[in-house]
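User: Need the bound-state model for magnesium ion:
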Amino acid sequence: MQETAIPNGAANQSVGPAAGTAPGPKPASEAIIRAEGIEKYYAQPSENRIQVISATDLSILPGEILALLGPSGSGKSTMLRMLTGLSCPSAGQVYWHGKPIAEAEINVSIVFQSFALFPWLTVLENVEAPLQARGVEREARRARSMKMLDTVGLDGFESAYPKELSGGMRQRVGFARALVVEPEVLFMDEPFSALDVLTAENLRSELLELWQKKTMPTKAIFLVTHNIEEAVLLADRIIVLGRNPGHIRTDFRVQLPHPRERKSEGFTQLVDYIYKVLTRPDVSPDEAPDHQHPGPRVRDQRQMKYQMLPHSRPGGVAGLLELLLDKGGRDDIYRLADDLAFEIDDLLPIVDAAQLLGFLTVEEGDAAITAGGTEFANSEILRQKELFRDAAVSHVLLLRQIRRALETKSDHTVPEEFFLDLLDEQFSEEEALRQMETAIAWGRYAEIFDFDAGRRRFVLPDAQEEAVAPGEDTE
Ligand code: ADP
Ligand code: MG
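Assistant: Bound-state model below.
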């Protein structure tokens, strides 16, 4: 009953089936952890509560490395906390071997990005700590910890303190401490993000080796990451989260053989496919082959009044377009990021912004400059501002609304708060502020409005002089 097409394309823009992939999860009967319709809300100071995760079904199956991929703020850590029982879903239920997680004896470990070691304990004592907490006898505790330190390449460092170690070594301690309890599921939240490139790469391959050699009794690994290549390098299955609120955009198996080659065709195809899903947050990927996942569709049916403005500066958009033009008008986003030594989280908002403004399109993981984008990149700065203004006013509802309001009001000024209230209905308070900050940066640059930061008011450009009290006008 497995279908052939895999990560399917977006409704109005087809994605070529990526090689080396297969449909999403198998039936969830044998799942170690199964989440059904889990949602998460956070209370707000105002009476609105903000939904961070929309109803989601997700299963962790034995034998798999499952990567949860998504931009920052999409709810990856929130999801991890719910799946590990660290936090309670606001709705829905998480099951551990079929039993509600709160009533079950779960056996999981979590590795965090920030190492989270006890600074006053030695390496050995840090690794022993979870065993001690589980009541393991001193001798057994010591023996198991020493063996685990050996496994992760830390023999000889037992009596060092965390502060004496490099970041890579500290994360090794983090792994040893997580693995020493022989967790059935090992959870990791961006475990390599705080490390330098080389160290991260080493640790990744070592982890994979441990896993493949079945050195550890761990049955599944759940890896949270915002790094596409990391996911494609390690995972047997990848789930991509979209944000606002968090929801599953696609869920598929990766069938590339190990060791995976970053430069191989299958690898880059898959990276491109995922880039594509991530760069088109407004389109929903086709029905995933797996029909057991009603959750992910929830958000797409919801009417989003305001687009999510990517948090990027107009100067960034200009820089990207100029670079793209330089490269002949089209380039692989993955290569662009590589050339710029950018992380996806840094490049994507700029690509998103340029796309939102109609300056470029994204197809098959390539960014292609449009006629409008070419004109923009070729223009001098004043003309660029004009082109940006036209594009922003026609594509961005919020900017259009602010401009209209300013033109309509007799004194040509409107308080920021008026628009923040509108945004608050759709975004979390924090996000509404960030949206406003971006809108202000774009609007000021394009001279759609002025912003009086002292009074927190928008002002129509040119209207400022008129607004001066008559008495002060000496001419
Ligand atoms: P990720 O790990 O993907 O970066 P998180 O799960 O940390 O995302 O956060 C998802 C969203 O939930 C973000 O918008 C974040 O601001 C919000 N959020 C997380 N924790 C809380 C909290 N305790 N209260 C309110 N909002 C929160
Ligand atoms: Mg996180």
